[in-house]
Amino acid sequence: MRWLVTVVALLIAISSVSAAEVHIFVDKESVNLGDQIRFQVYFEVNRSADIAVVGDGGDGSLLCHVNDGEDLYEKCGEEWVFRIPEDWQEGTYRLKVVIDDTEPEEHSEEFKVVKPKIKEFELKNLVYQSRTELEVLVESANPASLKLRLYGNNVDLYYEETADYEEESNIYSAKFDLNLRELYERTRDIADAVKPGKYTLDLKLEYGGKVWDSRRVTASVVKPEVAVSAPEKVKVGEPVVVSIDTNRIGDTEYDGILVVLEGNNFLLYKKAYLDENGKAKVQFETAGLREGKYAIYVRDTSKTSTLSISDLAKNYYDLPPDNSFSRIIQAEDDVLVKKELWIVG
Length: 345
Hints:
Layout: H1 2-18, E1 22-26, E2 30-32, E3 36-43, E4 49-55, E5 60-66, H2 72-76, E6 80-83, E7 91-99, E8 105-114, E9 117-121, E10 126-127, E11 131-139, E12 144-152, E13 155-163, E14 165-168, E15 171-179, H3 182-187, E16 197-207, E17 210-222, E18 226-229, E19 233-235, E20 240-246, E21 257-263, E22 266-272, E23 279-284, E24 292-300, H4 309-315, H5 324-328, E25 335-344
Parallel strand pairs: 2-8, 10-17, 19-25
Antiparallel strand pairs: 1-3, 3-6, 4-5, 4-7, 7-8, 9-11, 11-15, 12-13, 12-16, 14-15, 16-17, 18-20, 20-23, 21-22, 21-24, 24-25
Protein backbone atom coordinates (compact mmCIF):
# COMPACT_ATOMS: atom_id res chain seq x y z
CA MET A 1 0.00 0.00 0.00
CA ARG A 2 2.89 2.36 0.77
CA TRP A 3 4.14 2.23 -2.83
CA LEU A 4 0.63 3.09 -4.10
CA VAL A 5 0.51 6.22 -1.94
CA THR A 6 3.94 7.23 -3.23
CA VAL A 7 2.86 6.82 -6.88
CA VAL A 8 -0.31 8.88 -6.34
CA ALA A 9 1.67 11.67 -4.67
CA LEU A 10 4.15 11.65 -7.55
CA LEU A 11 1.35 11.92 -10.13
CA ILE A 12 -0.17 14.88 -8.27
CA ALA A 13 3.21 16.60 -8.19
CA ILE A 14 3.75 16.05 -11.92
CA SER A 15 0.24 17.34 -12.70
CA SER A 16 0.73 20.51 -10.67
CA VAL A 17 4.03 21.19 -12.39
CA SER A 18 2.72 20.64 -15.92
CA ALA A 19 -0.45 22.78 -15.49
CA ALA A 20 0.51 26.32 -16.52
CA GLU A 21 -0.75 29.35 -14.64
CA VAL A 22 -2.07 31.62 -17.39
CA HIS A 23 -3.57 35.09 -16.91
CA ILE A 24 -5.68 36.52 -19.74
CA PHE A 25 -7.16 40.01 -19.82
CA VAL A 26 -9.65 41.34 -22.41
CA ASP A 27 -10.67 44.97 -21.87
CA LYS A 28 -14.18 44.66 -23.37
CA GLU A 29 -16.98 42.16 -23.20
CA SER A 30 -18.09 43.19 -26.69
CA VAL A 31 -16.63 45.20 -29.56
CA ASN A 32 -17.95 46.45 -32.89
CA LEU A 33 -16.45 45.41 -36.20
CA GLY A 34 -13.72 47.90 -37.08
CA ASP A 35 -13.10 48.85 -33.44
CA GLN A 36 -10.07 48.16 -31.27
CA ILE A 37 -9.84 45.80 -28.34
CA ARG A 38 -6.93 45.40 -25.91
CA PHE A 39 -5.47 42.06 -24.80
CA GLN A 40 -2.93 41.11 -22.14
CA VAL A 41 -1.51 37.64 -21.49
CA TYR A 42 0.92 36.42 -18.85
CA PHE A 43 2.36 32.97 -18.22
CA GLU A 44 5.70 31.42 -17.23
CA VAL A 45 6.37 28.05 -18.79
CA ASN A 46 9.29 26.62 -20.75
CA ARG A 47 7.16 25.49 -23.67
CA SER A 48 6.26 26.81 -27.06
CA ALA A 49 2.89 28.58 -27.16
CA ASP A 50 0.51 30.31 -29.52
CA ILE A 51 -1.64 33.34 -28.72
CA ALA A 52 -4.52 33.86 -31.13
CA VAL A 53 -7.93 35.42 -31.65
CA VAL A 54 -10.35 32.71 -32.77
CA GLY A 55 -14.00 33.04 -33.79
CA ASP A 56 -16.71 30.40 -33.87
CA GLY A 57 -17.29 31.20 -37.54
CA GLY A 58 -13.69 30.56 -38.57
CA ASP A 59 -12.32 34.10 -38.59
CA GLY A 60 -9.28 34.84 -36.48
CA SER A 61 -5.67 35.94 -36.26
CA LEU A 62 -2.45 34.59 -34.75
CA LEU A 63 -1.11 37.32 -32.48
CA CYS A 64 2.15 35.71 -31.41
CA HIS A 65 4.11 32.44 -31.33
CA VAL A 66 6.59 31.81 -28.52
CA ASN A 67 9.28 29.13 -28.89
CA ASP A 68 10.76 27.07 -26.08
CA GLY A 69 12.94 29.21 -23.88
CA GLU A 70 11.81 32.57 -25.32
CA ASP A 71 10.59 35.32 -23.02
CA LEU A 72 6.93 36.13 -23.63
CA TYR A 73 7.24 39.90 -23.18
CA GLU A 74 10.44 40.18 -25.20
CA LYS A 75 8.93 38.21 -28.06
CA CYS A 76 5.35 39.49 -28.06
CA GLY A 77 5.24 42.64 -25.97
CA GLU A 78 3.19 43.30 -22.87
CA GLU A 79 -0.17 43.82 -24.63
CA TRP A 80 -1.94 43.88 -27.97
CA VAL A 81 -4.25 46.59 -29.26
CA PHE A 82 -6.07 44.70 -31.96
CA ARG A 83 -8.48 46.17 -34.49
CA ILE A 84 -11.30 43.80 -35.46
CA PRO A 85 -11.42 43.62 -39.28
CA GLU A 86 -14.68 44.94 -40.72
CA ASP A 87 -15.10 41.86 -42.94
CA TRP A 88 -15.12 39.40 -40.05
CA GLN A 89 -18.32 37.66 -39.05
CA GLU A 90 -20.07 38.79 -35.92
CA GLY A 91 -20.42 36.35 -33.06
CA THR A 92 -18.45 34.85 -30.18
CA TYR A 93 -14.65 35.05 -30.23
CA ARG A 94 -11.96 33.91 -27.81
CA LEU A 95 -8.51 35.13 -26.99
CA LYS A 96 -6.85 31.73 -26.86
CA VAL A 97 -3.51 30.67 -25.39
CA VAL A 98 -2.35 27.19 -26.47
CA ILE A 99 0.70 25.77 -24.67
CA ASP A 100 2.36 22.74 -26.26
CA ASP A 101 2.80 19.67 -24.08
CA THR A 102 2.08 15.97 -24.33
CA GLU A 103 -1.41 17.26 -24.99
CA PRO A 104 -1.98 20.91 -25.99
CA GLU A 105 -3.14 22.94 -23.01
CA GLU A 106 -5.75 25.59 -23.87
CA HIS A 107 -6.75 28.71 -21.94
CA SER A 108 -9.17 31.31 -23.28
CA GLU A 109 -11.35 34.33 -22.55
CA GLU A 110 -14.53 35.04 -24.52
CA PHE A 111 -15.76 38.31 -26.01
CA LYS A 112 -18.44 39.23 -28.52
CA VAL A 113 -17.97 40.90 -31.90
CA VAL A 114 -20.98 42.93 -33.04
CA LYS A 115 -21.95 44.26 -36.45
CA PRO A 116 -23.90 47.50 -35.84
CA LYS A 117 -27.44 47.17 -37.16
CA ILE A 118 -30.94 48.58 -36.85
CA LYS A 119 -32.69 46.04 -34.68
CA GLU A 120 -36.28 47.25 -34.47
CA PHE A 121 -38.63 50.16 -35.01
CA GLU A 122 -42.36 50.44 -35.59
CA LEU A 123 -43.66 53.28 -37.73
CA LYS A 124 -47.40 53.76 -37.36
CA ASN A 125 -49.55 56.15 -39.35
CA LEU A 126 -48.60 59.77 -38.78
CA VAL A 127 -51.48 62.18 -38.29
CA TYR A 128 -51.68 65.55 -40.04
CA GLN A 129 -50.10 68.30 -37.91
CA SER A 130 -49.04 65.81 -35.24
CA ARG A 131 -45.97 65.49 -33.06
CA THR A 132 -45.12 61.93 -32.14
CA GLU A 133 -42.20 59.85 -30.91
CA LEU A 134 -40.48 57.12 -32.91
CA GLU A 135 -38.26 54.74 -30.94
CA VAL A 136 -35.49 52.87 -32.76
CA LEU A 137 -33.53 49.98 -31.25
CA VAL A 138 -29.94 49.45 -32.40
CA GLU A 139 -27.62 46.50 -31.86
CA SER A 140 -24.13 47.83 -31.20
CA ALA A 141 -21.34 47.46 -28.66
CA ASN A 142 -21.32 51.25 -28.23
CA PRO A 143 -23.71 54.18 -28.80
CA ALA A 144 -24.27 54.86 -32.50
CA SER A 145 -25.69 57.67 -34.64
CA LEU A 146 -29.05 57.48 -36.40
CA LYS A 147 -30.16 59.77 -39.20
CA LEU A 148 -33.77 59.98 -40.35
CA ARG A 149 -35.16 61.69 -43.43
CA LEU A 150 -38.87 62.10 -44.25
CA TYR A 151 -39.49 63.34 -47.76
CA GLY A 152 -41.97 63.54 -50.63
CA ASN A 153 -44.68 65.92 -51.89
CA ASN A 154 -42.31 68.92 -51.63
CA VAL A 155 -41.48 67.99 -48.02
CA ASP A 156 -37.97 67.25 -46.76
CA LEU A 157 -37.41 66.82 -43.02
CA TYR A 158 -34.17 65.69 -41.34
CA TYR A 159 -33.63 64.37 -37.84
CA GLU A 160 -30.55 63.03 -36.09
CA GLU A 161 -30.29 61.21 -32.77
CA THR A 162 -27.74 59.11 -30.91
CA ALA A 163 -28.75 55.65 -29.75
CA ASP A 164 -27.09 55.92 -26.35
CA TYR A 165 -29.57 54.49 -23.85
CA GLU A 166 -28.61 50.88 -23.21
CA GLU A 167 -31.82 48.85 -22.92
CA GLU A 168 -29.87 45.61 -22.48
CA SER A 169 -26.46 44.23 -23.40
CA ASN A 170 -25.49 45.61 -26.84
CA ILE A 171 -28.99 47.01 -27.46
CA TYR A 172 -29.28 50.81 -27.48
CA SER A 173 -32.33 52.97 -28.12
CA ALA A 174 -32.94 56.40 -29.62
CA LYS A 175 -36.17 58.38 -29.70
CA PHE A 176 -37.01 60.71 -32.57
CA ASP A 177 -39.38 63.62 -32.08
CA LEU A 178 -41.28 63.60 -35.39
CA ASN A 179 -42.77 67.09 -35.44
CA LEU A 180 -45.00 67.39 -38.51
CA ARG A 181 -46.00 70.88 -37.35
CA GLU A 182 -42.45 72.10 -37.92
CA LEU A 183 -42.90 73.31 -41.51
CA TYR A 184 -46.18 75.09 -40.74
CA GLU A 185 -44.72 76.74 -37.64
CA ARG A 186 -41.93 78.31 -39.69
CA THR A 187 -44.30 80.36 -41.85
CA ARG A 188 -47.76 80.03 -40.19
CA ASP A 189 -49.03 79.35 -43.72
CA ILE A 190 -51.26 76.30 -44.10
CA ALA A 191 -49.90 75.81 -47.63
CA ASP A 192 -46.57 74.76 -46.06
CA ALA A 193 -48.07 72.12 -43.76
CA VAL A 194 -47.22 68.45 -44.34
CA LYS A 195 -50.34 67.29 -46.18
CA PRO A 196 -51.99 63.88 -45.80
CA GLY A 197 -50.49 61.40 -48.25
CA LYS A 198 -47.64 58.94 -48.84
CA TYR A 199 -44.05 59.81 -47.99
CA THR A 200 -40.71 58.02 -47.85
CA LEU A 201 -38.82 57.55 -44.61
CA ASP A 202 -35.10 56.73 -44.76
CA LEU A 203 -33.27 55.61 -41.63
CA LYS A 204 -29.48 55.20 -41.53
CA LEU A 205 -27.22 53.84 -38.80
CA GLU A 206 -23.73 55.32 -38.68
CA TYR A 207 -20.81 54.25 -36.54
CA GLY A 208 -17.17 55.21 -36.84
CA GLY A 209 -17.88 57.36 -39.89
CA LYS A 210 -19.47 54.50 -41.83
CA VAL A 211 -23.08 53.62 -42.66
CA TRP A 212 -23.60 50.10 -41.33
CA ASP A 213 -27.32 49.65 -41.88
CA SER A 214 -30.29 51.42 -43.42
CA ARG A 215 -34.03 51.07 -43.83
CA ARG A 216 -36.49 52.63 -46.28
CA VAL A 217 -40.22 52.45 -45.59
CA THR A 218 -43.37 54.19 -46.74
CA ALA A 219 -44.82 56.64 -44.23
CA SER A 220 -48.51 57.53 -44.35
CA VAL A 221 -49.75 60.89 -43.12
CA VAL A 222 -53.48 60.57 -42.48
CA LYS A 223 -56.28 63.02 -41.77
CA PRO A 224 -57.27 63.62 -38.15
CA GLU A 225 -60.25 61.68 -36.85
CA VAL A 226 -62.41 62.71 -33.91
CA ALA A 227 -65.11 60.70 -32.15
CA VAL A 228 -67.19 62.36 -29.42
CA SER A 229 -69.27 60.82 -26.66
CA ALA A 230 -71.53 63.00 -24.50
CA PRO A 231 -74.81 62.57 -22.62
CA GLU A 232 -78.01 63.50 -24.42
CA LYS A 233 -79.66 64.65 -21.20
CA VAL A 234 -78.49 65.79 -17.76
CA LYS A 235 -80.16 67.40 -14.77
CA VAL A 236 -79.29 70.90 -13.68
CA GLY A 237 -76.36 70.63 -11.29
CA GLU A 238 -74.97 67.47 -12.86
CA PRO A 239 -71.71 67.78 -14.79
CA VAL A 240 -71.55 67.31 -18.56
CA VAL A 241 -68.58 65.11 -19.38
CA VAL A 242 -67.47 65.14 -23.01
CA SER A 243 -65.25 62.19 -23.99
CA ILE A 244 -63.04 62.68 -27.02
CA ASP A 245 -61.26 59.89 -28.90
CA THR A 246 -58.86 60.75 -31.73
CA ASN A 247 -56.27 59.04 -33.89
CA ARG A 248 -53.57 61.39 -32.57
CA ILE A 249 -51.99 58.57 -30.59
CA GLY A 250 -48.70 59.54 -28.99
CA ASP A 251 -49.27 63.28 -29.43
CA THR A 252 -49.39 63.80 -25.67
CA GLU A 253 -50.66 67.19 -24.42
CA TYR A 254 -51.91 68.15 -27.89
CA ASP A 255 -54.20 71.13 -27.23
CA GLY A 256 -55.52 72.01 -30.66
CA ILE A 257 -59.04 70.78 -29.88
CA LEU A 258 -61.69 73.32 -28.89
CA VAL A 259 -64.81 72.22 -26.98
CA VAL A 260 -67.79 74.59 -26.81
CA LEU A 261 -71.00 74.30 -24.80
CA GLU A 262 -73.58 76.58 -26.46
CA GLY A 263 -77.12 77.44 -25.44
CA ASN A 264 -79.63 80.29 -25.57
CA ASN A 265 -77.56 83.42 -24.82
CA PHE A 266 -74.90 81.18 -23.29
CA LEU A 267 -71.48 80.03 -24.48
CA LEU A 268 -68.61 78.42 -22.61
CA TYR A 269 -65.47 76.99 -24.19
CA LYS A 270 -62.50 74.92 -23.08
CA LYS A 271 -59.44 73.34 -24.63
CA ALA A 272 -58.99 69.58 -24.58
CA TYR A 273 -55.61 68.04 -23.73
CA LEU A 274 -54.92 64.63 -25.23
CA ASP A 275 -53.24 61.81 -23.37
CA GLU A 276 -50.75 59.40 -24.96
CA ASN A 277 -53.64 57.33 -26.35
CA GLY A 278 -55.16 60.30 -28.19
CA LYS A 279 -58.03 60.64 -25.71
CA ALA A 280 -59.33 63.45 -23.53
CA LYS A 281 -62.23 64.37 -21.27
CA VAL A 282 -63.67 67.83 -20.78
CA GLN A 283 -66.18 68.63 -18.04
CA PHE A 284 -68.72 71.46 -17.93
CA GLU A 285 -70.62 72.32 -14.75
CA THR A 286 -74.35 72.97 -15.19
CA ALA A 287 -75.12 74.51 -11.81
CA GLY A 288 -77.03 77.74 -12.40
CA LEU A 289 -77.77 77.04 -16.07
CA ARG A 290 -81.27 77.31 -17.47
CA GLU A 291 -83.15 74.26 -18.53
CA GLY A 292 -83.36 73.76 -22.26
CA LYS A 293 -81.59 72.64 -25.40
CA TYR A 294 -77.83 73.02 -25.72
CA ALA A 295 -75.22 71.96 -28.24
CA ILE A 296 -71.68 70.67 -27.82
CA TYR A 297 -69.16 71.49 -30.55
CA VAL A 298 -65.82 69.72 -30.67
CA ARG A 299 -63.40 71.21 -33.16
CA ASP A 300 -59.92 69.88 -33.96
CA THR A 301 -58.18 72.94 -35.39
CA SER A 302 -54.89 71.16 -36.20
CA LYS A 303 -53.40 74.32 -34.64
CA THR A 304 -53.47 76.15 -37.99
CA SER A 305 -56.13 78.81 -37.35
CA THR A 306 -55.17 82.44 -37.97
CA LEU A 307 -57.50 83.46 -35.14
CA SER A 308 -56.99 83.36 -31.40
CA ILE A 309 -58.68 80.57 -29.50
CA SER A 310 -61.12 82.99 -27.87
CA ASP A 311 -62.06 84.60 -31.20
CA LEU A 312 -62.56 81.23 -32.86
CA ALA A 313 -64.57 79.91 -29.90
CA LYS A 314 -66.83 82.91 -29.55
CA ASN A 315 -67.50 83.74 -33.19
CA TYR A 316 -66.75 80.74 -35.42
CA TYR A 317 -67.16 77.66 -33.24
CA ASP A 318 -69.82 76.23 -35.59
CA LEU A 319 -68.27 77.33 -38.91
CA PRO A 320 -68.27 74.35 -41.31
CA PRO A 321 -64.77 73.52 -42.63
CA ASP A 322 -66.10 73.57 -46.20
CA ASN A 323 -67.41 77.14 -45.83
CA SER A 324 -65.58 79.62 -48.06
CA PHE A 325 -64.68 81.77 -45.06
CA SER A 326 -62.90 78.80 -43.49
CA ARG A 327 -60.15 79.16 -46.08
CA ILE A 328 -59.58 82.76 -45.02
CA ILE A 329 -59.01 81.84 -41.38
CA GLN A 330 -57.22 78.57 -42.27
CA ALA A 331 -59.98 76.41 -40.83
CA GLU A 332 -60.60 74.31 -43.94
CA ASP A 333 -58.53 71.50 -42.39
CA ASP A 334 -60.61 71.45 -39.19
CA VAL A 335 -62.65 68.47 -38.03
CA LEU A 336 -65.99 69.53 -36.51
CA VAL A 337 -68.34 67.31 -34.47
CA LYS A 338 -71.66 68.45 -33.00
CA LYS A 339 -73.70 66.79 -30.24
CA GLU A 340 -77.06 67.94 -28.87
CA LEU A 341 -77.79 68.08 -25.16
CA TRP A 342 -80.87 68.73 -23.01
CA ILE A 343 -80.50 70.14 -19.53
CA VAL A 344 -83.58 69.35 -17.48
CA GLY A 345 -84.85 70.12 -14.00
